[in-house]
């Protein structure tokens, strides 16, 4: 696979990175163009891109949130204080 | 010998996002969710001696969290009698407004959709647990917190190329894990 793809503009690993950047809207115009050209002839990357886009959709649908760092600090302090009194 | 042991100093780093996402969809209020998780951690420390090590640390914390959520609803239900019920839609001054208020929002999800999405979120966090800790942290900063590449690079002291390689590995692992566990 690798030898054949080296004749073209970008290889599969670079296409993978471009695809990831595109998921976060961080890909430049040239990166998007290179990716699209690569996708024309690379079936494996087309499949990977489809899978990657599906993952983005799932993450969006899941509405995952992370706790604010301040709150984590409060919990850590609470645990540390309580832990030393409960289990000295 | 017990298969699992407790390490309270790691609870916040390892489980707080999971516990938070588990709680938020059930109580629908960040402040209340934070309070319930705080109570969960304290209750867990109090009963740490009773931990037999048969379940994983996270399963054990979730079982305490479930009790705390039930306690929360019991508490608010006991105040039910004091609830104010608005039934005066058809006063002269606001006639007509009520129709607009009562029209179903087409974008509203059903309770089942919300729970399914929450389960999906928890499955994603589960999968992230199984990949390299640093990769998972960087992935969360980029994908869940939506931080800029530059900001994350400064925080973790890595180059943008490193970041994208890490994100690529994390996404590949996550997609494979979800395909195995979710679909």
Helix content of chain A: over 70%
Could you give the distance between the termini of chain A? 60 Å
Tell me the major beta sheet of chain A.
none
Total helices of chain B: the number is 8
Total helices of chain A: the number is: 5
Order of H and E elements of chain B: HHHHHHHH
CATH C-level class of the largest domain in chain B is Mainly Alpha
What sort of overall outline of chain B do the alpha carbons produce when their principal axes are compared?
A: globular
Give the overall average pLDDT of chain A.
Answer: 87
- So what's the oligomer here? heterodimer
Low-pLDDT segments of chain B: none
What is the number of beta strands of chain A? Answer: 0
Number of domains of chain A: 1
Termini separation of chain B comes to 36 Å
Tell me, rounded to a whole number, the average pLDDT of chain B: 83
Hey, roughly how much beta strand do the residues of chain B contain? under 5%
Please provide a written account of the structure.
The complex is a heterodimer of chains A (88) and B (183). With 88 residues, chain A is mainly α. Chain A has one domain (2-63). Chain A has helices at residues 2-5, 12-23, 29-41, 43-62, 69-86. In chain A, helix 2 (12-23) packs across helix 3. Chain A is rod-shaped, with a radius of gyration of 22 Å. Chain A starts with a helix and ends with a helix. Chain B is mostly helical and 183 residues long. Chain B has helices at 11-27, 30-46, 57-78, 97-102, 111-129, 133-143, 149-156, 160-181. Chain B starts with 10 loop residues before the first helix and ends with a helix. Chain A binds chain B through residues 16-17, 20-21, 23-24, 26, 51-52, 54-55, 58-59, 61-67, 71-72, 74-76, 78-80, 82-83, 86-87, and chain B through 8-9, 11-13, 16-17, 20-21, 24, 34, 37-38, 41-42, 45-46, 48, 117-118, 120-121, 124-125, 140, 142-145, 149, 164-165, 167-168, 171-172, 174-175, 178, 182. Chain B: It holds the Pfam family Sigma70_r4_2. Chain B: Residues 12-75 form the RNA polymerase sigma-70 region domain. Chain B: Residues 123-174 form the RNA polymerase sigma factor 70 region 4 type domain.
